[in-house]
Amino acid sequence: MSDLSNVLRDLDQLMESAQREADAARDRQAAAEPVEGSALDGKVKVRLAADGRVSELVLADEVMGMNARELGREIASAFNLAWAAARSDDPAAAAVAAVDPAALAESLRHVREEGMRSMQKITEALADTMQQIDRRLS
To answer: Where residue 110 sits, what CATH number does that domain have?
Structure first.
């Protein structure tokens, strides 16, 4: 039974390591600095949080006289500049940024706990079966 115990321990260590990585990714994202894009010489500013959501939109008083279509175009331009700065041209970086580390960490925690419960049940069932075989052979 020690082999099964070793497998169970190794599995737990692997899952714990994955959990630590997910927690670290969540912490890195939480600590990331917001990114800003601007248009019209800084009169329109969009600030993005680490998860890509707009955290702040700043419009100078003088742009409030613009027609809605022009102002919308400038806001979109500022957003796109901020988004590009946050994601760079690396598609892998954009994909990673789209992952919610907090949700991933919670999912991994749940999977780990369920996996450990299942492996414990399997180990106990195998141990019981081995004991029954030993008793019959004795």
So the answer is: 3.30.1310.10
